[in-house]
Amino acid sequence: MCGIVGYVGTKDSAPILVEGLRRLEYRGYDSAGLAVHTGRGVEIVRAVGKLANLDSALKKNPLSGTTGIGHTRWATHGRPSEANAHPHVAGRIAVVHNGIIENHVQLRRDLEAKGVRFQSDTDTEIVAHLIEEAMQRGLTRLSEAVRAALGQVRGAYAIAVVNGDAPDEIVVAKHDSPLVLGIGDGENFAASDIPAILAHTRDVVLLQDGEIAVLARGGVEIMTLDGTPVNRAKKRIDWSPTQAEKGGYKHFMLKEIHEQPRAIEDTLRGRVDLNNADVVAAEIGMTDEVAKNLGRVYFVACGTSAHAAMAGRYWVEQLARVPSTLEIGSEVRYRDPVFMPNDLVVAVSQSGETLDTLAAVKAAKAAGAHIISVANVVDSAIPRVSDGVLYTHAGPEIGVASTKCFTTQLAALLMLAVYLGRRRGTLKPEDARRVLDALWHVPAQMREVLAKAEDVKNIAKKHLRAHDMLFLGRGTQFPVALEGALKLKEISYIHAEGYAAGEMKHGPIALIDEDMPVVVVCPRDNQYEKTLSNMQEVKAREGQVIGICTENDADVKRLCTGNAGGTPRSGRGNWAADAPDAIEIPVAENEVLPLLTVVPLQLLAYYMADLKGTDVDQPRNLAKTVTVE
After folding, report:
1. Is 624 part of the annotated catalytic residue set?
2. Which of 42, 134, 217, 589 is in the most buried spot, having the most CB atoms within 10 Å?
3. Superfamily for the 446-612 domain
4. What is the pLDDT of residues 440-489, one digit of tens each?
């Protein structure tokens, strides 16, 4: 997720902007830049890579002025490069942007038809040209031109704009991307997150969706996009700088769990076409002919990504009716696998740099297979060798144990399955619309699940002494069970195993006794009755059943009562030690259930680790990206 900083006041802006960007480094970035009004107009300095490179560039080309904007870019459109780095310029307008413009393709075509020449591959440059065009039409105030430009934009944005003809003014606006205003004495600030401005002020105003603000030395003017004035009291921030980086959450992992609805929205944005019951994904790089003639879909991934790929395999077989398989990257690498020219190889990697997955992709490509990658980092190694890429838009993930990267991978893979099904004629428009509509509603339903975090914490307290745990699921809930077990052992160091629920009688049932918590993922899907039977078998052997179920499921709740352990009634006053160890999710279509059932398991792992006092964000012996054998 990009970082934005803006300053207008009496001090030299460049050092303030760079320091603000440094406070936002935790958000991740691939390039950085500043636009400062120097008195002669707006001047730009940009650099690829870390802020040290921007520092070097500023030593060669110093910027001096009291008004400016800065940006760290996390690439979503266009590879990391100086040309694609922000700020972007059109005429005397400079813009920085966080978000995704959904209709950027059509807007770019319209502008090019008018003779506009673009200098970058980004969607952001379009905004700069739209504002410049509005001013050329006679809108003299920058805020009016910004409002006119944003009226043509569809998507998510937080923007900051400076104008060469207005040396003491910044205009900012937001929709579905964060932006905060800092209120100082004779100076004012804007930033995409609070840490960037805490060194200068603790008085902030949180800009709301559909609002625009004009920052000057003497004050801040806020209005809606239709020009209606907004009066909002400033808020005093008493967080420490470290707390501010985490958004007030105790750990980055917890923050990232709660960021998942936003991350899913960003991954879906511009790709779901409900009117035509289809997925818009030109970046997949696959013709309809290739999709129709596929003989096999071959998923390759490691770790958490392999669990997402397993769900993707189920969806592709169900919706696109293509034989599919999943292989672990490290096994493919040394197994001399057989790839065919009509294979579609789907490489799933959060970082896009996973060494074993990359090696498997290279082998598949050499054999003539068609390669699609699902990754979170633009222009990383695996996307570079792929024929097409379906980028997730999770944003940087600081916690080593993946959460939002996993669920955005699920969303991307479900879209891929719909995309293939529509082109192969195996998925009727009404069924595609049903799945996509359900996927579109997942973020709102995720927020409902996250609202029950305190209940999950209370369940974690009851089972904190467990040395071993079992996770069971069927169908697409099997990879969720695997992921739940992985999360628990990664960060709490409790031994945990995930199993297909139908395999319980083939061994794991021998482990079940009164000291064994068994987490059963049992929503009301097409395998509900079979999974419920497995829960009854666990209960019959005095296992402690923890259930993930659809709301108002009395049968599951009954099997989740009477577990050992217990804590006093919670401070909220509505949970007791004998409450069922069941976490409810909203009613949803079968295909999207994994995106909802995994959230309680992430929270369960988090709270058990936190209560045990382990290093949640940096668990022992683990690295975020595995780039060595």
Report:
1. yes
2. 42
3. Glucose-6-phosphate isomerase like protein; domain 1 (3.40.50.10490)
4. 999 999 999 999 999 999 999 999 999 999 999 999 999 999 999 999 99
